[in-house]
Known about the structure:
A: 5-stranded antiparallel beta sheet
Amino acid sequence: QKEVEQDPGPLSVPxxxxxxxxxxxxxxxxxxxxxxxxxxxxxxxxxxYTYSSGNKEDGRFTAQVDKSSKYISLFIRDSQPSDSATxxxxxxPGYALNFGKGxxxxxxx
Amino acid sequence: xAGVSQSPSNKxxxxxxxxxxxxxxxxxxxxxxxxxxxxxxxxxxxxxxxxNSAPDKSGLPSDRFSAERTGESVSTLTIQRTQQEDSAxxxxxxxxEGASGSEQYFGPGTRLTVT
Lengths: 109, 115
């Protein structure tokens, strides 16, 4: 079993929709959780960083960690075509990031 | 400020040739990482440097892969006798320190194609 599982999609939504992206992880000891955004043929860009449980909000983006169910979520409000990218969740048990496979998101005008 | 840079951006090589990939981390970042992203796969950790030493090489897939870092700055990933399964995007990241929880910032990657 991979340590981080993520549905690869693709996920297609109309502009303005609320997007929900999700991951599950296997090790309850994980404390650090990240979301990266990766545009085609670019490197991953750190989007959100969360420690332990709870919510973190940054503009239209909200990251949520539920440690009881080992579930990580990213919500995008008022989605824009420029949000079309692959979203990667990751945990950081030590120094090496454990990534999910990424979810491909397409926001259509 | 300047981000992580990598060169070349693309590399096409024949099977059996050696290749060198370069990474310039963010200035002042002591920790440097190499990851590999194969088509349809998630990012795989290859190696971690703290300063010029590599405390963890566990992710290197075979002894054809090696890496070094000099001057606590530039790092080079070398793949000898390349195979077709080495085709992937090789990503470098750096962080201020190597402690758990340090935010890692990625470069644009080198896309390696082995023909």
